[in-house]
Amino acid sequence: MKRAAVVVVLLFAVQALAQTARDSDWQPDSSDGRSFAKTIERYPDRSRFATYITALEEVRAGLHSNSVWNDPITRGVHDALDFHLTAAVGELTTTSAALGSDASTAEGASQYLLNGFTPERFAADAVTLSYFDAAGTHVVSDEQLQAIPLAAVEDFKVRTDTAYRLLRDMEKPAFATTASAIARINKEWDLFINHGPAQFPWESFINGHLITTRFDPPPSHQWIIAHPMVAVEITKRSLSDLRADQSIAVEALGHAWYRFAQPPKEAGLRWFGIAAAVGIHADRKPSWGVIGHYNRAVTAGLLWQSKTAGVRVDDPTIVLGVDLYQLVQKKVPEYRDRLRKISGAK
Question: What is the mean pLDDT of the chain?
Answer without folding.
Answer: 75
